[in-house]
Amino acid sequence: MGISKSDQSRIRYSLRNMASSAFAQTFLGIAAFLERSIFISVLNADYLGLNTLFANVLNVLSIAELGIGSAIAYALYRPLAEHDDDRIATLMQFFRKAYSVIGLAIMAVGFIISFFIDSFVTGSELAKSDIQWYFLLYLVSVGVTYFFSYKQILIEADQRRYINQLVVCFGTMLQYIVQIAVLIATRDFGLYIGVFFVFNILKNVILSMIADRIFPALRRKGRDIRKLTGESRKDILRNIKAMCFHKFGDVAISSSDSIMISLLVDIRSLGLYANYQIVINALEGATRVFYSSTLASIGNMFATEDRDKLYGSFLALNFTNYLLHSFIAALFFAIIQSALQLWLGSAYLLSVPTIFWISLSFFVRGIRRMPTNFHDACGLFWADRYKKIIEAVINIVVSVICALYFGIAGIFVGTVVSQIIGFMIGGRVLYRYAFDKPLSLFIRMYLSEMVATIAAMGLSFAVCFLIDIPNPVLRIIIHAIASLLVLSAYYFILYRKNPSLKAIKDNAIEYMRTRHRQKSTRA
Fold first, then answer.
1. Is the pTM of this model over 0.70?
2. CB 426 within 8 A of CB 245
3. What is the CA radius of gyration of the chain?
4. Nearest-5° angle of CA 157, CA 282, CA 503?
């Protein structure tokens, strides 16, 4: 029995998205590493912490976006699958107006915050006026992107994420090159942000023009576009309202860590964490190749397939996503200290307990991605609308309390605890409304994955600890190889008979056979 045409199309788009994402993340990761190395050598740790703080404050302000992007994508899956240009034009006109208001709101609130942004900076000798000026420049650089980003969501909803990836990749690489040149020539942090502003505009304008060429519906004007009906507007606004709560929690977890480090510890410690964060961001970018490349295909499947097929696809994709993040988290915990010591020196290292919680946070955040993909593709925004509020409150309260006793490590304890609770709430909604399955199945699967990953982290760390090599370059190479071998053996023994792994292998073989038959027929 062959694979259906719709399945072939989804697989083809997913593979294309994955390939482009892998290319983009590889080159961007290398470029970001070089850019950060030169940044640290030219400017001090205060500027590094300041750059991280600005990015996270702007991420907090992005709560004004209310998660509307997910609501847009969900609303577009069916009309894109049915090639309904009238519906697409109507929806995009509504979303264009919404994003214009959002962009203006973010810049207005950010302008007010600029007058006391220096209060977030402790332990620094930077002038208040300089901090305010740098923040305003960063604010405008990010704020203007909201006037273009709704078209990028349309491209991704049509399973063409690879287009966005390639434009962003080449644009960001050029940005890094110019920023490095500016840093070396001027040592001016303001000009550094100015380059970011110029390239942010260019990337968004180019993607906007590409979207206009691909989708004729975007070229319609005025009377050629029907107004959104009351019922449709009500459904979209209901989803946006629910996503407001989800967005608040996401921002609280992703950005509050850096803000709390700056407030409860000091700006230099935030700079130290920023070095680990750039590695984490690179790893998340690499894993994003998998889960983000499948989102639009999942949405297409939800719009056209039955529930049993959706659940079967979830089990296979979720297991792959878990295995990927578990392996990376264990490897990161084992070798990150040696890697950063070689890169920056011992003065830039955090404690081992802190690294453990950072690694575990990466894992928990990562394995949430695939359930979240299915949650968003199925439009379950309203069913667990309060989940992120609960998660955000727990994150802040537990982080602050633990930080008083354990410092930076305590902040990540709060992050992990809140992520686990939020994950359980989201799993209940997904299994009940999307799959009609008992929550116990989800809990057993998740707890077994959690225990297996902590064991893998301990195993890889112990192996590296026992192998003591004085030469730093040789040490990291041997530690990486030893960890890879031990972890590969560990996961093979643990999962060699796993049914999800077998399903993935069978589907891959069948897809390749089908593609081969099609090529032979055309030939």
1. no
2. no
3. 23
4. 60
What contacts 24+ positions apart, CB below 8 Å, involve 446-452?
446/367, 449/322, 449/326, 449/367, 450/364, 452/326, 452/494
The structure tokens 């969900």 sit at 74
pLDDT tens, residue by residue, 190-210:
788 888 888 888 888 898 888
Amino acid identity of residue 232, one-letter, is: S
Residue 505 has a CB neighbour count (10 Å cut-off) of 11
- Residues 87, 369, 24, CA angle at the centre, nearest 5°? 80
396-439 pLDDT per residue, tens = 888 888 888 888 888 889 889 988 888 888 888 888 888 888 88
Which residue reads 């949430």 in tokens?
Answer: 368
The phi-psi region of residue 44 (left if phi > 0; otherwise alpha if psi is between -120 and 50; otherwise beta) is beta
Q: How many CB atoms lie within 10 A of CB 495?
A: 15
| Contact by Cβ (8 Å): 447, 393 | no
Q: Residue 515's closest CA among 103, 11, 70?
A: 11
The DSSP string of 88-143 is HHHHHHHHHHHHHHHHHHHHHHHHHHGGGGGGG--S----HHHHHHHHHHHHHHHH
Question: Length of the chain, please?
Answer: 523
